[in-house]
Write a structure and sequence with these properties.
Length: about 140
C-alpha cells in the first residue's frame, strides 16, 4: 500500500537537516556513515510505502551518484541513461536489507549493472569509430 506522508520526512529532516551536505560533499569517513544513517531512515519509510520518502531519497542519492559518475570509469557508463538510472535507484531502495552500507550497496549495484552498458564514447559523433588505446 502506497501513501504520501510529508510529516514522516519532516521528522527525519528535523533530526538530520543540517547534515544533508554529506550527500553532496562528504569530508570524512564519519560523513559517509552519517549519509548511510540518513539514507537508511529514508529507505525504511520508502519500503513501508511512503512515496515522498522514496523520491526524497532518490534526489539525495543523485548528488552522490553524480560524483561517482565523474570519478569511476564503470559507473560513468550511466551518463545519459537517466531513466534506467532512476529505475536502478528505486530498485536498490526496494531490495536493500539493512546489511552493511546502503551507499556501498548502491555503488556496487551501479558498478555491476554498468558493466553491461556501452561507454558513451561509442555513441559519440565527436570521436572516430576507433577504440581508444585503453579499451
Amino acid at each position: 500500500m502506497f501513501y504520501e506522508d510529508r510529516g514522516e520526512i519532516e521528522t527525519i529532516l528535523r533530526k538530520h537537516g543540517d547534515k544533508l551536505y554529506v550527500f553532496i560533499a562528504p569530508r570524512s569517513k564519519s560523513d559517509k556513515q552519517i549519509a548511510d544513517r540518513i539514507g537508511i531512515s529514508f529507505v525504511r519509510l520508502a519500503q513501508k510505502g511512503n512515496l515522498v520518502a522514496r523520491q526524497e531519497l532518490c534526489d539525495l542519492i543523485r548528488f552522490t551518484v553524480d560524483r561517482w559518475i565523474e570519478r569511476h570509469e564503470i559507473v560513468a557508463r550511466w551518463r545519459g541513461h537517466e531513466e534506467e538510472l532512476q529505475a536502478q535507484l528505486e530498485a536498490c531502495i526496494r531490495r536493500y536489507r539493512y546489511t552493511g552500507s546502503f551507499l556501498t550497496y548502491v555503488f556496487r549495484t551501479l558498478e555491476y549493472a554498468g558493466r553491461g552498458i556501452m561507454p558513451a564514447w561509442v555513441y559519440s559523433l565527436d570521436h572516430s569509430n576507433e577504440r581508444p588505446a585503453s579499451f
